[in-house]
Amino acid sequence: MNYHKDNKLNTSSLNETIDVFHRGGFYLVQPKSGGHRSGMDAMLLGGLVPTDFKGKIVDLGAGAGAAGFAVASRCKNVEVTLVERAAEMVDFARKSIALPENAAIAPRINVILADVTLRGKQRQEAGLSDNAFDFAIMNPPFNSPFDRKTPDNLKAEAHVMSDHMFEDWIRTAAAIIRPSGYLGLIARPQSLAEILKAFEGRFGDVLVFPVHSRKNGAAIRILVHAKRASKAPLSLMPALYIHDDDLHAFSPLVDAINNGKMSIWQSI
């Protein structure tokens, strides 16, 4: 996979790796074991931001920052704020910002240690002010607590959803995105009803992109794009197929999105 690890950059003496994304467009320090390691979900999420977008982007629950870095790498006129509550993952993001290989995009990326679910004064004091951003992206934990458990607490925190999670995260997004700003998220299809419920009175003009492994299978993810304070109706968008037919290689479209060559919008 072109966004995956380059062993020459593996810092094997530490519990971390330096992974290459966008075919050298940016480099990401990630946990070697323990915690969440980013891959295609983060790249697809970043693909919801148009390449010519200008403004301030916030990546909520950013982990090590893969989706936010992907947006900064492809979109040259954005400033990206990564928001993450796990101090260990924030440290990885800060190391990535400091890498010489990221010098071209690092001035446009900053990171905040904060819980996405903070409210009111606490949220603002953490640096998440009302109407401060033009576009929010999020890859919240979307595994059920009843799915296979992991003894890794840091990984569990990144993967397992809490009660009312979408309500809490989308409430924060609605507060910090300016009116007519945008929200993009990736989730499992079974979460759609909960997401739409949390959008009520906050977001409209909802566009849902089903993501399938192959054309003969059910969707395994949904990408959701919505506009703050819009009353426009929901639209079901063309599906994305990760693989063509029975081939193991990525489809040309998904490969281009994975590697920062285009956004989803350039395909429709």
Automatic annotation (TrEMBL):
GO molecular-function terms, A-Z: N-methyltransferase activity; nucleic acid binding; S-adenosylmethionine-dependent methyltransferase activity
A Pfam match: MTS
Gene Ontology biological-process entries: methylation
Source domain of life: Bacteria
Keyword field: Methyltransferase, S-adenosyl-L-methionine, Transferase
All copies of domain Methyltransferase small, residue ranges: 48-189
SUPFAM superfamilies assigned to the protein according to its UniProt record, in alphabetical order: S-adenosyl-L-methionine-dependent methyltransferases
InterPro entries for this protein: DNA_methylase_N6_adenine_CS, SAM-dependent_MTases_sf, Small_mtfrase_dom, tRNA_Adenine-N(6)_MTase
PANTHER family cross-referenced by the UniProt entry: TRNA1(VAL) (ADENINE(37)-N6)-METHYLTRANSFERASE
Protein name as it appears in the record: tRNA1(Val) A37 N6-methylase TrmN6
